[in-house]
Amino acid sequence: MYFNKKRLVLIRLFDRLLAFLYAFRRPNPINHDCSQYEKILILESHLIGDVIMGLPAYRAIREKFPDSELIFLGNQWGKDLLDGQGIFDRFIISRIPWAVYDYSIKNLIQLFSQTRQLKKLKIDMAFDFRGDIRNIFLLHMVKAKRRVSYDFTGGRYWLTDIVPSPENWHLIERNLNVTKFIGAENNEDVPRLELSQAKLQISKKHLNNRGLNNIVFVHPGASQPKKLWSSKRFAGIVKYLQKKGYSAVLLAGPNDESIVKSIVDECSKRPEVLAVPLKEISGYLACGEFFIGLDSGIAHLTAALGKNVIVLFGPQPSSIACPRGYGRIVKISKGNFDCRPCNRRVCDRDNACMRAIKTEDVIEAIERIESDR
To answer: Could you say which of 3.40.50.80, 3.40.50.2000, 3.40.190.10, 3.30.460.30 is the CATH number of the domain covering 197-371?
Structure first.
């Protein structure tokens, strides 16, 4: 987990002040009898990839507390991905301000209203896997009787259970370390998404109607501009796939229109473009031969479906957040950059780490995937 260093200094100064004030408060007694836990809350406020990498931990909690009501608090994409997986009993959708960068009065009022509703539920135990002081404060505000998290950025006085901070573990291990701390273990450290046959057949029919087979999905989008790769190089990959007889299908998310158009304009033979809602995309991804994309949530989603994945890493080290799945995962990361891991929203080095990845590197990865088939 990486945080902006300057902002982190200010947060920790503020945290020390709060720690001094809370030092004089008497903590409430904790009920450690897990058999009495009726309602358990899991807060996952951030990106699609974070939701996918949380799957092994969510399943561990579900198995540990089969009779408890498990509640998911987070963004809409959490429900889109997890509904029907047999893990959560209830989804509470919230645009967490610090996750979606929306601090408007309307959104803050909505969060305050949801906090009041959650207090009425009388949550027995709540989890935050990020160790983010803002998330921890939210767990405190909903008055969960037991609050479990790391304290990477502070807030330990709002927690009842402080999980020892690990070193540079993969995010999946970090999540499982939290559940292990309260006795919920899971030997499966690979995210796994179940897909209904009905959804799969609908997707297959749609692709067949468009005359698509031997499909390779290419997703050029990412959550942050610093993770993007050259549209010309993506076009080079599309041309290579077409030459080899694949149907190269560009995936277009809500914010990918510009880069997808640039790639299409670079290609003499127009590639297919697929733009479908997140809750429907898993059926399509399951129909592909393999996937090529950036360090993004869709790469994690494809891997969780058991498909072969090629993923390009730049600002973040692959050791922390590389997708995991039961298919082949080929990660591409080039160069040694002293600014990696990057904690900036916008790169001030002209995306040097992404520019270090050449078209030939991806073609080599494709050949490695093909050699395993």
So the answer is: 3.40.50.2000
